[in-house]
Each structure stands twice: as C-alpha cells, then as structure tokens.
Amino acid sequence: MRTRFAPSPTGPLHLGHAFSALTAWDLARAAGGVFLLRIEDLDQGRSRPVFEAGITEDLAWLGLEWPRPVLRQSEHRPRYAAALDRLTALGVTYACRCARADIRAALSAPQDGAPVSGEVIYPGTCRGRPAAMAAPGEAIRLNVVRALALAPGRLEFVEDGPAHRGRHRVEAADLAGLGDVVLGRRDGAAAYHLAVVVDDAHQGINHVVRGEDLWPATPLHRLLQALLDLPSPVWHHHRLIRDAAGKRLAKRDDARALARYRAEGVAPADIRRLVGL
C-alpha cells in the first residue's frame, strides 16, 4: 500500500490536515506500506517556503516519516504539460478566454440545468474553440461530454471509506455536476484535477486518502485516468473535522493550527484524541 498526504504550502496545517495525514499514515503502517508527502505548490502566487517548512515540522512532530526527496509539483511542470497535450490530441479539451465576470454574467441569464448546492458550473461558452487557439492568459478546459464518450468501456472505481464503501460506476450525471473543469490554468500551470491524477500515478499511489469534500471529484479523476491510461487506485474519503458550529476548518482558522497546539505544549497523542483517532 502506498498512501500520500498532499498539502498546499499556502497556510499553516490545522486539525483537519492532521486527521487526513494521520489516517493515511495509519493505513499505510497497518498494511506494511509506504506513506509519502507531496507538496502541491503549483499556485506560486500563494505558496510560501515558510509554510512548507511548517508542514514538515508539524508532520514530524506528529511522528510521521516519509521518503526523501519530497515531490514538489512546481518542479514537474513538463509532466503535466505532456498529459494535457495528450488530452488535446484526443480532442477533449478547448481554449477558454472567459473571465470570472463573463462566467457570472452567463450564469445570471435564465437557463435549464441550474447547478445544485450552489456550485458554479461553467456554461460552456467557449466549447467551440479548439485548444490550439489558446492565447497566452487563457485557460484550457475539459469537454466532459466528449471525454466521457471517448472513455474506454465501463468506468468504475473502488471506495473503502466509511461513507461510500463499495464499487461505483462513473455516470454522466456525476460529471454533469462538475461541468467542464479547468485542466490548464490561465497562468500556464496545471490545475488541480489534472496534476493530482498525474502525480498519483507517477508516485505509484494505490490508496488515495482524502477528505469527503473531494468525493464528488472522484468520477472526474477516474475519467482522466482512463483517458491517460493511468492506473486506478482505491479511494478512501474520510470525514471532515469541523468547529463547534459545524463549519469545516480552513487554513485561516489559526486557533486550530498545529503549530499553535505544539507551542502550547500539546502532545501528539492529544492531537489524535482531538480528531477522534
């Protein structure tokens, strides 16, 4: 078993991060496997070395160990570009020049198929523009309908997390809830959905441990794996750690930052107790 914890160095780790990292660590150790740390720093505008240093200090304090060197996404841009080129060659991407204001204006018009749960789904304004037409500063999006039509055979994935345990089939309705997601960002970097499937395959991750909030993205990730001929791991989506009001913890919630607990003399065993492990 190979698991990973893949934080972005854009803020301090909090109790929710600790729960995710410890869950991946515990699963790997129980199976005699390997736990890896990956730094998802493609957002260079927000990533900071001080936060990356804090991540390694916090995880080491919790008692976690991982192989070195650590994979940093910013050092592997050619691999993501090659994957995006392959998808473009399949004819499942297109260039998008829409700014956020354009998308908001399009979504404000009366339309069928309104998104559920307040999610903003791109309306497909640029769907007719081939990726080859992309100018500097434009994004590259996935044509989800075309991609699903090209997917080889019946797409399924296995989940062993507590809320969705079992084998699941990728359905068009699952992908409709996401829309034509961005794969190549306007700044030229790979977007999360592309980078994560490429990195998991590159690192041999066969058990993806992550939060319940990413469960809706799993059919999309399985689709991208199929189009890129990448292996499909087992997924394990865990519960989210929330505050007293039921709100999911965020990096701006400094009161629950691991560094603060550490500075106050809290022991790693206490952190495990706080997150229910």
Topology (SSEs and partners):
Blueprint: E1 2-5, H1 15-30, E2 34-39, H2 49-61, E3 71-72, H3 77-89, E4 93-96, H4 100-108, E5 139-142, H5 144-150, E6 156-159, E7 166-169, H6 172-176, E8 182-184, H7 192-202, E9 207-211, H8 218-227, E10 234-238, H9 258-263, H10 268-274
Parallel strand pairs: 1-2, 2-3, 6-10, 9-10
Antiparallel strand pairs: 4-5, 5-8, 6-7
Helix pairs in contact: 7-8
Question: Can you offer a commentary on this structure?
Answer:
This protein is an alpha/beta fold and 277 residues long. Helix content is 35%, strand content 15%. The protein has 10 helices and 10 strands. The strands form 3 sheets. Strands 7-6-10-9 form a 4-stranded mixed beta sheet, with helices on both faces. It has a 3-stranded parallel beta sheet with strand order 1-2-3. A 3-stranded antiparallel beta sheet has the order 4-5-8. Helix 2 (49-61) links the parallel strand 2 (34-39) and strand 3. Helix 7 (192-202) crosses helix 8 (218-227). The radius of gyration is 19 Å and the shape is globular. The chain starts with a strand and ends with a helix. Residues 105-118 have low confidence and may be disordered.
The helix-and-strand class reads alpha/beta
Q: What is the strand arrangement across the widest sheet? A: 7-6-10-9
Mean pLDDT: 89
SS strand fraction:
5-15%
Number of strands: 10
Work out the helicity level: 25-40%
Distance between the termini: 20 Å
One letter per element, helices H and strands E, the order comes to: EHEHEHEHEHEEHEHEHEHH
Shape: globular
* Contiguous uncertain segments of 5+ residues: 105-118
Largest sheet: 4 strands, mixed
Radius of gyration: 19 Å
Count of DSSP H/I helices:
10
